[in-house]
């Protein structure tokens, strides 16, 4: 499940925490929000940032051969 958590401090700072988004796509998700909030002072990546999605594909070909005996 993808979640965005925001903590707004009394001095106006906003802390944003993204969970459930694998890879660098979290930056794409939060870019518009960060642009509206203002200057990003610090950014820390989590282990999810360095993960990659694995896509498996398999194709199976079945051939039936009949003997002529």
What fraction of the residues are assigned to beta strands by DSSP? 15-25%
Kindly report the average pLDDT value. 81
Any idea what the shape is? Answer: rod-shaped
Structural class: alpha+beta
Q: Can you count the helices? A: 2
Biggest pleated sheet = 2 strands, antiparallel
Helix % is: 10-25%
> What's the gyration radius in Å?
23 Å
Order of helices and strands: EEHH
Q: What is the tally of beta strands?
A: 2
Q: Report the end-to-end length measured between terminal Cα atoms.
A: 59 Å
Biggest sheet, spatial arrangement of strands: 1-2
Give a quick summary of the entry.
With 69 residues, the protein is of the alpha+beta class.
Which descriptors apply to this entry?
alpha+beta, 69 residues, 2 strands, two-stranded antiparallel ribbon
Description:
A two-stranded antiparallel sheet has the order 1-2. Helices cover 25% and strands 17% of the residues. The longest helix is centred in the middle third of the chain and has 13 residues, at 25-37. The chain has a domain at 3-50. The protein is α+β, with helices and mostly antiparallel strands. The protein has 2 helices and 2 strands.
How is this fold's topology laid out?
Layout: E1 3-8, E2 14-19, H1 25-37, H2 47-50
Antiparallel strand pairs: 1-2
